[in-house]
Specification:
The protein is an all-alpha fold. 63% of the residues lie in helices and 0% in strands.
Length: 49
């Protein structure tokens, strides 16, 4: 049983899916942190130039 689990963990597909999920979660976190600004969130940096 343990050997089958090790084979599954070392599979290229599982590693790819793990990396995809990791970076996708980071992307979603950044989107939710910086993506929802309304008009009261402050001025855009280039408006003052």
């Amino acid at each position: 049983m343990f050997e089958k689990l090790l084979i599954l963990i070392n599979s290229q597909k599982v590693k790819w899916l793990g990396r995809f999920a990791y970076y996708f979660l980071i992307l979603l976190l950044l989107f939710f942190m910086y993506g929802f600004n309304d008009a009261s969130a402050g001025s855009y940096i280039y408006n003052d130039f």
